[in-house]
Amino acid sequence: MQYRPLGRTGVQVSNLCLGTMMFGAWGTKDHDESIRIIHRALDAGITFVDTADVYSQGESEEIVGKALKGRRDDVILATKFFMPFDDDPNHRGGSRRWIMTEVEHSLRRLGTDHIDLYQMHRYDPAVDLDETLGALTDLVRAGKVRYIGHSTFPASALLDAQYIARDRGRERFVTEQPTYSILTRNIEHEILPLTQRYGMGVLSYSPLAGGWLSGRYRKDDHSGPMSEARKRLANRFDLSLPENQRKLDAADALAELAEQAGVSLIDLAIAFVLRHPGITSAIIGPRTMEHLDSQLAAADVELSADVLDRIDEIVPPGVTLNPADNGWVSPYLNKEARRR
Predict the structure, then answer these.
(1) Per-residue model confidence (pLDDT) at position 222
(2) pLDDT tens sequence across 156-183
(3) How far apart, in whole angstroms, are the C-alpha atoms of residue 174 and residue 9?
(4) Residues 6 or more apart from 93 whose CB is under 8 A from it?
(5) Of 106-110, 193-197, 275-279, 333-337, the least confident
(6) Distance (Å, rounded) from C-alpha 92 to C-alpha 84?
(7) pLDDT at 332 over 80
(8) Quick one: residue 120, left, alpha or beta (phi over 0 = left, psi -120 to 50 = alpha)?
C-alpha cells in the first residue's frame, strides 16, 4: 500500500480507500462478514474508509462503526450527506436544518465523536452553497467535522464553492469525489485540472466502472448486475443499450490488453486510475472477501507508457462511453424542469 497527501490538508491517506456502499441491505447483509472484510482491508494497510448516510439507509454507517471500535484513531473516516433519506422532503439536501440534524445521526451510527471528512454527496443548484458552507463551517469549528468535501460536482459549482469560501470566510471544500475509470474519463476535461489548481484531494469512485472492468460483464453473459444497488441503474447496466454495448467492446479489448501486460483486468483498471497525478485515492467497493482480495494488489501495480498508450486507443482521454455514468446531470436538461 502507498500513502499520499490528501490535498493540502497535511493528512496522509492510503492510495486505496475502502468504500462501504455494499455493506448492508444493498449488498452483504451479514454484518459479521462485512466487519471481517473491513478488518481485512485495515490489516492490509488501508487507512481511508468512505461511507454515506444513504447507503442501506444508515446500515452501512452502523456496520462501519462496529468495525472501527478500538481502531478509530487509525482511520481517516469519511461519510456523506444530501441524498433523500426517506419520503420527507426535508430529510435531504444541503440545508442547514438537514445538515445539523443528519450529522448527529451519522455520528451516532458511526459511534464516533467526529467525522474526518464530511462530504456533500451531490450538487443541487436549488441549494444555496453559502448556506451549506455556513453550516459545515460551524461543524468544523465545533469539532464535529475535521474537513469538508463534495462529490460529483460540475466544474462551475466547484469554482463557485471555492470563491464563496474565500469571499465569505467559510471553510473550504478540500476534496472532490468523482467517478473515474477507463470507461468514464469525463473528469479529465475540467475537474482534475481544477482540483489540481486548488490543491484538492481527489478520492475517485468506481475504478472498476461498477463491475464492467472486473470481468463481470461479457457479451455471452446476459445475467446483469447482482447487487440491489446496481439493479436500480438500468440505464447503466442494461446490456441491450448501444452505449453499454460499447462498454462491453471496450472491456473485452482491455481484458486482452491486461493479459498481454501480465496483469489482471482489475489490476489494470485500478492502476490506471492511480496513475493520474490528480488522483489521491481510488475507492474500491468490495461486496465479498474475494472481491477485496482481488483488488488489494492493484495498489502497487505500475503500468508502462506503452500500456497507457494502448488504453488511450481503446478509450480516448476525456471520453465517457455511456454519459449516464458521469454521475451528475444538470436538472435543467430534464424536460419537466424546463417546463417549470
Answers:
(1) 55
(2) 999 999 999 999 999 999 999 999 999 9
(3) 8
(4) 82, 124, 127
(5) 333-337
(6) 4
(7) no
(8) beta
Q: Which helix (H) or strand (E) holds 132?
A: helix 129-141
49 within 8 A of 78, measured Cβ to Cβ = yes
Selected catalytic residue, list 55, 118, 147, 217? 55
93-108 mean pLDDT: 98
Pairing of strands 48-50, 76-81: parallel
Can you tell me whether residue 76 is helix, strand or coil?
Answer: strand
Hunting for cell 469539532 — which residue is that? 143
H or E element at residue 283:
strand 281-284
Q: Is 55 a catalytic residue?
A: yes
| % of the chain with per-residue pLDDT over 90 | 86
- Given this model, what pLDDT does residue 284 score? 98
| Residue 143, burial from CB neighbour count under 10 angstroms (0-12, 13-18, 19+) | exposed
Instruction: Return the residue matching grid coordinates 468512505.
Output: 50
Locate all alpha helices (DSSP H) within 205-331, ordered by sequence.
228-231, 234-237, 242-261, 265-275, 289-296, 305-314
Nearest-angstrom CA–CA distance, 57 and 26? 9
| Confidence (pLDDT) at 338 | 47
Residue 13 backbone dihedrals phi, psi, to 5 degrees? -135, 155
C-alpha span between 213 and 19 (Å, rounded): 17
pTM: 0.93
DSSP letters of 153-181?
A: --HHHHHHHHHHHHHHTPPPEEEEE-B-B
